[in-house]
Here is the input.
Amino acid sequence: MSDDNKVSVEFGAKTDDLTQGTDKAAAQVDRTTNKITEDMKKMSADTVAAVKEMQGQITGHFNTLSTAINKITGFMGIMAGVLAGGAAFKAVIGETNKWTGEAIALSKALGVTTEQASTLNVAMMMTGSSSETMTAASNALTRQVRTSEAAFKGMGIETRDGSGHLLSMSDIMTAANAHLLTMKAGIDRNTEGQRIYGRQWAEIQGILKLTPAVMEEARKKAQDLGLMVGEENVKQMKAFKLGMNDIKLISESVKVQIGNAVMPALVELGRWFGQIGPEAIGVVSFAIKACVSVFQGLAFVAIAVYETI
Here is the structure.
């Protein structure tokens, strides 16, 4: 009996110790769990706050950049509309300038007015030729007069006025063509044509079709169709070219202004990113350390329970 009582008493004592140890472990678990919960809440709050602050800074920098870009894009929209309107008439304006330019070039080559040059252009088109042919003929005739002026006098073609000044190339050409028309078509006319115009005679002999009757018809047609290039047309073309140059300058200015407006914002944004790099790494590091703290707490609980038991 005494042995059984001894076993019973010792068993009861062991059970009490175990119960007390278990209660202590449970209390320790509660304390550690509460601490872990508090640490997690603090970690979450600190992390969220840091992320929000970083997000606010990023938004502020991008808003600055966006404002600069919006100012530029607004102006670019206006410029695009202007340029699009000009592009719609590009072909028309190009043909206008081409016609005016040809009249100016021909007037300088022949020493005539732009109105007379316009008549010549119309006449050349009526006879299936072009202003380039007339310009080539003028250059060839000028070269021949400069090198063989005496030959023209021998053919009865006057090259100078009473004061000894050279006549306009238009007057010399008119007299030369009238002389060629008196020659028999074929070898006679071609030989004389080469003496007057040189080696280019074969390409430019179509100018003989510009008879006085054709020239008068061309003059009337140029007036009726509004193809007569006057002094006002010349001024308008020059003003247009200057205006286009101004548009090019404005276009360059727009590019420069975009660079001046956007570049500082981008530089500041890049500098800021360089500054927040360590901060961002710090936020991530804090989160990792918090997680490590949690796992260490869990390990401490497990050890405490084990040691208590």
Summary: The chain is about 85% helix and 0% strand. Residues 92 and 168 are 33 Å apart (CA to CA). The longest helix spans residues 2-88.
